[in-house]
Here is the input.
Amino acid sequence: MTAAPVPPSSTSSPSSPRASTRPVAIVTGASRGIGAAIALELARAGHDVALLARSVPDLARSAAAVRAAGAQALVLPTDATDAAAVGASVRAVQQAFGRIDVVVANAGVYRRAPATAVTRADLELALRDNFWSAFHLIEACLPLLRAQRRGHVVILNSFDAKKGLPLDAAYAAAKAALASFGASLRQALRADGVHVCSVFPGRVDTAMVGQLEVPAISAKISAERVARAVLRGLRWRRAEVLVPWHIRSLWWLDVLSPRLGDWLVRVLRLDGRERAPRA
Ligand SMILES: NC(=O)c1ccc[n+]([C@@H]2O[C@H](COP(=O)([O-])OP(=O)(O)OC[C@H]3O[C@@H](n4cnc5c(N)ncnc54)[C@H](OP(=O)(O)O)[C@@H]3O)[C@@H](O)[C@H]2O)c1
Here is the structure.
């Protein structure tokens, strides 16, 4: 599933972007799924958008949707786990648009890893793809956001960070690290006028969990629904967004009693079941 890294390039846009008078967003994992939906929703809300991911054809498709919504799109093929490549792409956005207002750390990879058999390699991969990729983007954008004394950082997390599931040990650990980092960052950046919002979706109907069968109680929601929730989170400067709303009840019950939470995960079969790939 991991494509070879592609060096950053700003030449894949059909027309060269102009310095923007509109707010500018940078979105990782913008080639498909939730990231593509957020990029489009931001474009509809009046942002020009820089789209980062590895798959060039998918990025081009996503950028076409952004442009069709009347926004400028800058395509930057980037491996989000490569700090130097991310730094170069952030500089390319600054050069092209002259500003960055919304930073969306969305790129991530989900792999099953049962807690009883998880390996160091599983954990390192999960941290690379879900923690470090977000950190590299935030680290590269932070000096600009702090100098501007305004802006938003959106971190795509997962409900797994609120309640680790038995079969998701590595992914949940990486997302929990990211949740903690996001909470620290939110408080630290308050005085700088920079807003940090962590987003915790339940299951979402994207390629990431295409093989996963889930019970009706945690039915997959659309990527568009997550994107609309993100935009509301930006508008109201929310600290955290949980979507769909009803997953809060599981979280609250778990805060009240983690053993009750464990029991609910078991009886509701929230781990889901992976379908065998078609022969
Ligand atoms: N789907 C769910 O049920 C669900 C639930 C909760 C949270 N989330 C979180 O939401 C975010 C988006 O997930 P999704 O469901 O939209 O997944 P997806 O459909 O698999 O899309 C993942 C995106 O991340 C990009 N990506 C992955 N590794 C990358 C890397 N090293 N460098 C650059 N881009 C990379 C992919 O692009 P390329 O492959 O083209 O690079 C793609 O655009 C993730 O952080 C995920 O953990 C998902």
